[in-house]
Specification:
Radius of gyration: 21 Å
Structural class: alpha/beta
CATH architecture of the largest domain: Alpha-Beta Barrel
Strand content: 15-25%
Largest sheet: 9 strands, mixed
Oligomer: single chain
Number of helices: 18
Shape: globular
Number of strands: 20
Length: about 475
């Protein structure tokens, strides 16, 4: 079903009416240049057309960007919630949909899906990411979906798999509060999840020219105890892999940590455990205090801001708040809507409205949040930049669409007007994966149909019908 990936050893030449030049200190647009890829590297950015190339992409009005990096996404759990958890559905007793829908139904879903069905959902998610313009993804998911790695390998995206580690792997809302259940007899799932992570690391780390790798992902401050956070952090730093976790993503998480750990906030809890550092990507941070943000800044943590998913529950996740605190901040989609350009637009609108300041969350800053900030966050200077020697990961946007025209400033037009419908081409590691807005490494219609069928099987579960109908 999946077409073989193209040969990464070919030479590709892409013409850009606009090119985001990574050689400048700040995002700078140059006009009418060729980006020349040789194998898996950027060879040159030149005003002259190369004399020969195996693949030539030469269409007017294209904006060539470094490959966009979406470093916080959930293909599986958000597919279950999509179009069901809006308008207050799935929320009971003001509990977060994390505990009422996402975690319990993803667990139930894994219990009934076959490996092929899990693979179908994973393929569907990767296709949506690529069509949304992402060349890289960091994907936290339950340990029971190793097929995420298979899908990433098949479809060519740059992939950091981040299988969850839990101390309590079955947290769910019950009678107006969150119950933290475990699966193991000793009331802690730490050892089993660490063992599963290590097995996946041995199997997948560095596969396909190091395009596939792992990140360490203790799930959240309220679902992971101190022993697990310390052990996971020590193991990640021993291996040199990124660490990611959910931090202050709900009011109930904040209250739970305060009650357990002597009044500490979730950020203070992680600092106490030695987790905060430049290798940590902390997702959401919506309920962090200003003092928490100053602490994260002092420890050089990257914040993963996912603004649109929080609008679903009428909460403000303002990129501009983290920017104002001096934090390295990225925009991710959280799986809610895998349209990275649309997410940047939402980040701009929400930030400006929340602050009353139109001069924050500007187009250059937001574009950096999914390009060079991503390379910095994972310690990869060869990602998120269009410079000779960088990885041959690029995203090409069609700026000739009627609803974009006219524009004076292509970067501002990109952030304020464009969305995934204008993604023209996606190249990862020198391989053309999306062309003309369509997947070219698989049967797009069949992938989507099979993924949808698997998710609908979960929706038919009685517990899913009950959870998704509650308000």
């Amino acid at each position: 079903m999946i077409d073989p990936l193209p040969n990464r050893q070919q030479t590709t030449a892409v013409f850009g009416s606009f090119v985001l030049d990574g050689r400048a200190e700040v995002p700078t647009v140059i006009r009418d240049h060729w980006v020349i890829l040789e194998g898996d590297k950027v060879a040159a950015i030149s005003p002259s057309r190369p004399k020969a190339a195996d693949v030539v992409l030469d269409k007017p009005g294209r904006f060539i960007l470094p490959g966009l990096m979406n470093l916080h996404n959930h293909c599986f759990s958000e597919a279950i919630a999509r179009s069901h958890a809006e308008d207050g559905n799935g929320v009971t007793a003001d509990q977060s949909v994390v505990y009422t829908v996402l975690l319990p139904l993803s667990k139930s879903g894994l219990d009934i899906l076959s490996s092929q069905e899990r693979l179908a959902v994973a393929r569907m998610g990767i296709v949506q990411l690529l069509l949304g313009g992402a060349t890289s993804v960091m994907e936290p998911f339950r340990n029971g979906i190793p097929e995420m790695f298979d899908a990433a390998l098949e479809l060519g995206i740059r992939f950091w798999g981040a299988p969850y580690l839990f101390s309590a792997s079955d947290p769910h809302a019950e009678n107006g509060k969150v119950v933290y259940n475990t699966q193991s007899s000793d009331r802690s799932d730490n050892a089993a999840d660490l063992a599963a992570w290590n097995t996946l690391y041995e199997t997948w780390q560095g596969r396909d020219n190091s395009r596939i790798g792992l990140a360490m992902s203790p799930h959240a401050t309220d679902t992971c105890d101190p022993d697990l956070f310390r052990a996971a952090t020590e193991r990640a730093r021993e291996l040199g892999v990124p660490i990611t976790t959910h931090l202050a993503q709900s009011a109930s998480e904040v209250e739970k940590i305060k009650s357990r750990w002597n009044g500490r906030t979730p950020a203070e809890y992680l600092d106490w455990l030695g987790v905060l550092g430049p290798d940590l990507l902390a997702a959401h941070c919506v309920f962090c205090t200003d003092e928490d943000l100053a602490l994260l800044r002092a420890r050089d943590v990257t914040v993963m801001s996912c603004p649109r998913v929080f609008t679903r529950i009428a909460k403000i996740a303002a990129f501009g708040r983290f920017e104002a605190a001096g934090l390295r901040t990225m925009v991710g989609t959280d799986g809610y809507n895998m349209d990275l350009l649309g997410e940047l637009n939402a980040a701009a609108i929400i930030s400006k409205t929340a602050s009353g300041n139109p001069k924050i969350a500007t187009a250059p800053v937001l574009l950096q949040s999914v390009t060079s900030a991503g390379g910095n966050a994972v310690g990869r200077s060869d990602l998120g930049r269009l410079v000779p020697g960088a990885k041959a990961d690029i995203t090409v946007v069609d700026m000739t669409h009627p609803h974009l025209l006219p524009y004076m400033d292509p970067m501002r037009a990109l952030i304020t007007l464009a969305n995934r419908a204008q993604i023209d081409s996606v190249i990862v590691d020198g391989r053309l994966l999306v062309s003309g807005g369509k997947i070219c490494v698989g049967d797009q219609s069949r992938i989507m149909a099979e993924g949808c069928a698997a998710i609908e099987k979960i929706w038919d579960l009685p517990e899913a019908r009950a959870a998704l109908s509650k308000t």
